[in-house]
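User: Continuing from earlier, I have the next pair ready.

Assistant: Great, send them over.

User: Here they are, in order.

Assistant: Folding the first of the pair now:
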Amino acid sequence: MRNTLFITKGRLDPLAKNAFGLYIHVPFCLRRCLYCAFASSVLRPIPSHLYTLALIAEASSKLHHFSQYTLDTLYFGGGTPSLLDDHDIALFLDFIASTQGLATPRELTLEANPEHVSPARAKSWKSLGFTRISLGIQAFDDDTLKFLGRKHSSTQAQIAVDTLHQAGFDEVCIDLIYGAQIPGDSPSHALHRWAHSLKTAQKLAPAHASCYELTLEPHTPLWTRHQRGSHVLCDDDTLATMMQIIPETLNMPQYEVSNYTDGSAFSAHNLSCWMGIPYLGIGPAAHSMHIAPQGVIRRANAPDVRAYLDDFQRAQTLHAPFSPAEAFAETLSPQMHLAERLILAARTRFAWNPADIARQLGADLTPFLPHLKRAQTLGLLESRHDQTLRTTPKGIRLNNRLDEILFDGAPETT
């Protein structure tokens, strides 16, 4: 039950002490997917070693903000982290182990693309200490994969899952995307494709699945097609049905808006963020949050990958500490922090006590009480006998509306 630190009998526990998470953003891709608006860069060759040295330098300059905490989870996200050379991943992990004493992390995650999985690499990742591999599969349907701009095939994805299982990974996690309207498909055919992906996933027995609704981000190729009149998204009724069939078809309960697991394979890294645990993000566009005497400090690095590497090399030349340019930095008041914590808790299917959360943060729950009550009246939240609240299936389905209601009680960011 390794990933249940924050869960007791279906309830989110109070804020854990003396822990933080580390997120490493690896922004490189061999090509950009047609729906993607993430901070990523298509560079060839991949500057794996130079980038790893930059990550180490940035971490060295920032870890002092987290010196009172113990490193609990470590997550390589992207982009495509599996494009990094394994020797460079080992170099970074050795640095962390020597700095933070990270001998046996509770969770160590690597995002990977199916086409990068081989028996040799799976064995290498296992030897490096990774406990969890998250595969960006998106679909087990070749037409959908082509429509989304993915490089791998359904067969490659299935082989990748099996290969990781054979290497001894208990926590193989898959990402899927629903809602694509392929030209010529009827709504029923689109639904059939999605059901096929879910049934294929279920047979492969992953420990965890994340199912995301396809969204059209401005200036992506799919968004451009949509702007020009092409139908690239399923209609609302089909989308609702697609979401509705996920738990039963996967045979996995839903524990968060986009996340499913049939055991204790919750993402500990994500759970810790939802619970307000501090986190350090390194790499271009990475976000961080830590607690200081003046309040909760949240910041994000600038997204430009080339500028990030140029600044690192300039710092090396000057023998200076490397601290990359920031996109923003802000201090959250306890009230704003409370609003965010309530919204994050309400994304899950766990029970949570708003008074406990407010007490932890030294915030006033009073402005939020009418909004919490309104959400209950609308059937988005349900009250339980132990003073806790829980998001209903309707609240999960209409989570954006629930966010708006809860955020109405929040003040402006200071």
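And the other member of the pair:
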Amino acid sequence: MKLSNEFLFLALLLLFTSLVSFYNLGAEPLWLDEAISVRQAQAGFSEGMTLLSGDVHLPLHHVLLWTQVHLFGISEFSVRFLSALFGVLAVGSLYVLGKKLYSKRVGFLAAALLAFSTLGVYYVQEARLYSLFMFLSVASLLAFFTYVEKPTKRNAVYYFVATVLLMYTHIFAFFIIGAQFVYYLLVHVKNRKKTLRWLLLHSLLFVAFLPWLPILYRQIFSVIGHFWIPQPTLVSLLISFHEFSGSLLIVLAIFCIILAYSYFVYRKKIVETRTSFFLFSWLVIPFFVVFIYSQFFTPLYQTRYFLFALPIFYLLLSVGIDRVCSCVKNNWLFPVISLVFVLLFVIALAPQQTTLSKDDWRSISAFLKEQVGEDDYIFIHPFYHQDPFTYYFDQDCFSQTNVYVCNFEKHNIVSLNNQTSCCSDDSLLTSTLEQNTLSDFLTNTIWLVSVRSTEYVVDPGLFNYLSEQKSLEKHYVFTANHDNRTVISDWGTIDVWKFS
């Protein structure tokens, strides 16, 4: 049977997507959030779910990662495999969605941009929930438009399954579900039968989420007023747009498309569809709702939380390019502009794929194993970074319920107790000794491992306290660029200070 050009192009695109997604998948060390996810997944199922319910995340990714870990282990490649796979599925799903709503060429371009997106690939190669979230957002949208077009029982089941999975992935999924719910009601406001079916379908979705609802209630109220995220500014919105785009050059190219699109709309050569208005609202409203909420209540604005919108961002960009090229009526313009955009995305992605950027816990662990004496103390600061450090330093301790106890009893590793204030002689540590204050640990050599150390050097803290009490002997810097140790940014930088 002769294969169609569409199938060959899609297969080629998915092949390149797979190469990009799985390239050097295990090269980067696990960073904090990944290590926490892996340690929770490595626990027994009920224990892991208990740990998760005390966190702020929903359970689907944890269940999938738990299965992956218990079948294939906790190597960097293994724990990131599912994320990479969902990244490939997201690209394929976006092509299908673009083709369904617009055309084959719009679908191809949107899928290609997602495949080579710097932001998308970064999270596709992370053992976290964001790649799954991105895929399920596209799957739910595809199921939604399939149901809108043909509201059969089969399509209702498809939408129900995709949306239930989405609900159990991230709390921002309710932006997606809410938008779809309102859009359908507005379209079929005069059709009572369809409206009742839609309400029934969402009643079933509510019932499906009921088991987690009490836990979600506790999770939400546990972070009100004291979440770790800083309050966003207008610059935060610009940064998100830049991160979605990938580079300043791409931002400029997008603005050129926006200007051309606006011109043709003004000249009434472009009359946009209701679907495009819905997708634009679906894309933009969550950013502004969370931004405004974060000004008055607990800040929740982080670009990665909006990764579900990344495929639609590229879909609308592709639609804009398609509309502009159709107005010019040049058969070669769309392929040329599409190729330029794809090349810009590849150029922006290349440095990211060839430069390591996460905290280098692998190198720090190997270094300290060689340098630390038997009676020396290792201080990990802040305390929660014991998880990624222990993944490389001692995987037996990493598998324990209380990693702090194991680390201290086997390796003299301590941190400031998360309930203590910093820093004075009486500040409590995570050791198991009765004499468990900072002043009790000053007699031996101390190796202070300080993550993003400028935060603790500028402000009075553990570094300042140890500098006053002991003699600073050596300072080592472990940066994001593992090859030449040149500090390229504060992110990915860890300092190791030796006090004697």
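Worth noting for the second one:
The radius of gyration is 25 Å. Residues 455-460, 482-490 have pLDDT under 50 and may be disordered.
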